[in-house]
From TrEMBL:
Annotated source species: Piscinibacter gummiphilus
UniProt key word Chaperone: no
Domain FAD-dependent oxidoreductase 2 FAD-binding: 3-430
Protein name as annotated: FAD-dependent tricarballylate dehydrogenase TcuA
Cofactor(s) in the UniProt record: FAD
UniProt superkingdom: Bacteria
PANTHER family: FAD-DEPENDENT OXIDOREDUCTASE 2 FAD BINDING DOMAIN-CONTAINING PROTEIN, FUMARATE REDUCTASE
UniProt-listed InterPro entries: CobZ, FAD-dep_OxRdtase_2_FAD-bd, FAD-oxidoreductase_2, FAD/NAD-bd_sf, Succ_DH/fumarate_Rdtase_cat_sf
Keywords assigned by UniProt, alphabetized: FAD, Flavoprotein, Oxidoreductase
Pfam families: FAD_binding_2
Length: 465
């Protein structure tokens, strides 16, 4: 019998497996995907949000605990467990040396990644390189990995883990870490959570999945049905407005459209519906998927003019281009009269100011709703561009309630040998909203905690045998 069983194959699972092995436990990982698709959503990540009180190698200036906490508090609207959130924040300041010891390398913030040089440490080679480094290190340490082994149920005895089942295969262990992701690629569950809207549409039918097709939430649903305490709203997710031409699965970071704050966004009725300049893009980009999901047909268009070009990370696919706004409306299939009315009102509402897309500038609108509170420049310089947007789900927030030891709870009582990390518990910290890199902060912190807790539980049990 193995000491620690880790279910999942992404960042949190790998951190748990490495920590458990370093603590002296024998470890087996069960990854549902084939080897070439291993890693869950982690191959698509780019960076880790890090607290630091002074400049540190790739991080400039300082990003103290209280500022990190206030950023998280703002995007979650207070829907977060402060104790666990601060645990994640503090852990983010001390994990990088450990990550380096397992082959992860860092690089300075990319020039097109606005406002993140101070807050986020970027991975050299991206998430794919991070995942590969962790797997190399795990295998060198003797962690066993089984691919194409989706776990469909857990054998429990009064809140204690006994064994995991993958079809007819049974895997017993002294302790277990659950890190198998959310349910973002389970269309039926998304439909059930979102239901129909007032227009009779099923919004979830138009969602694209930015990450892994293997994150179907089978184990999450099984645990909740088995009496594990759940936390979070099933409709809440890290949901980004992405290029409507993106693939259904695994489009990743390159499908994001980053020009929203430099122009305006209109829906299928050619009307604006939210403040495009509310805050810096890394803090607010993740609200736009949900906003688009609430629009007719779950589609919208980001409209910019030539003044914005070169000020944001260029999309993979070129936008629709036109020499006039009227021509752009025609090419996008939007009602020209309504579109021109919307743009004329916005342009007239822009007040003079000092434009600077690197700060919260004083370029705002006046007398138009919704207002645009920063970076409001009239769209008057051809050529004009339009990018079709759809909601792109990264990961869901419904998860298992946990504590500072990463234990799974049953009726408020923590299990002494079943632990959880990553997307399966992120809802404890993220009740809603998102800020760039915090998912990796949560997965890394709780993966390491869960691995340590599981090893301690397994080795304690071994002493009593």
């Amino acid at each position: 019998m193995v000491d620690v069983l880790v279910i999942g194959g992404g960042n949190a699972a790998l951190c748990a497996a490495l920590m458990a092995r370093e603590a002296g436990a024998s470890v087996l990982m069960l990854e549902s995907a084939p080897r070439e698709w291993r890693g869950g959503n982690s191959p698509h990540v780019r960076n880790l949000r890090c607290m630091h009180d002074a400049p540190q190698d790739v991080l400039v200036d300082a990003y103290p605990e209280e500022e990190f906490w206030q950023d998280l508090l703002k995007v979650t609207g207070g829907k977060t467990d402060e104790r666990l959130a601060r645990l994640v924040i503090r852990a983010s300041s001390t994990c990088r040396d450990w990550m380096r010891s397992h082959g992860v390398r860092f690089q300075p913030s990319l020039s097109g990644a606005l406002h993140t040089a101070r807050t986020n440490a970027f991975f050299m080679g991206g998430g794919k390189a991070l995942v590969n480094a962790y797997y190399r290190s795990a295998e060198a340490l003797g962690v066993k990995v089984r691919y194409e082994t989706p776990v469909d149920r857990i054998e429990l005895q009064e809140g204690r883990f006994v064994a995991a089942h993958s079809g007819e295969r049974r895997f017993a262990a002294k302790a277990c870490v659950l890190a198998a992701g959310g349910f973002e690629s389970n269309r039926e569950w998304l439909r059930e959570a979102w239901g129909r809207n007032e227009r009779g549409e099923w919004p979830a039918d138009n969602f694209l999945i930015r990450g892994s097709r293997f994150n179907r939430g089978v184990l999450l649903k099984h645990l909740i049905d088995s009496g594990a305490d759940a936390i979070g709203d099933p409709t809440q997710a890290h949901m980004v407005a992405i290029d409507a031409r993106a693939p259904l699965y695994d489009g990743g970071i390159c499908t994001r459209i980053d020009c929203v704050s430099l122009g305006v966004v209109v829906n299928r009725e050619a009307k604006r519906f939210y403040d495009e300049g509310e805050d810096f893009w890394p803090k607010r980009y993740a609200i736009w998927g949900r906003l688009v999901a609430q629009q007719p047909g779950q589609i919208a268009w980001s409209i910019i003019d030539a003044k914005a070009v070169g000020r944001f990370m260029p999309p993979v696919f070129p936008g629709t281009q036109a020499d006039s706004l009227a021509e752009l409306a025609h090419k996008l299939g939007l009602d020209e009269a309504t579109f021109m009315h919307t743009l004329d009102r916005y342009n007239a509402a822009c007040r003079p100011g000092h434009f600077d897309h690197t700060v919260l500038d004083d370029c705002a609108t006046s007398g138009v709703a919704p207002a645009k509170t920063h970076w409001a420049l009239p769209l008057t310089t051809p050529p004009f561009f339009g990018y079709a947007l759809k909601p792109g789900v990264t990961f869901t927030y419904l998860g298992l309630k946990t504590d500072e030891h990463a234990a799974v709870h049953f009726n408020g009582v923590p299990s002494d040998n079943l632990f959880v990390a990553g997307e399966m518990m992120a809802g404890n910290v993220l009740g809603q909203g998102y800020t760039a890199g915090v998912g990796m902060s949560i997965g890394t912190a709780f993966g390491r905690i869960a691995g340590t807790s599981a090893a301690r539980a397994a080795l304690r049990e071994g002493q009593h045998v």
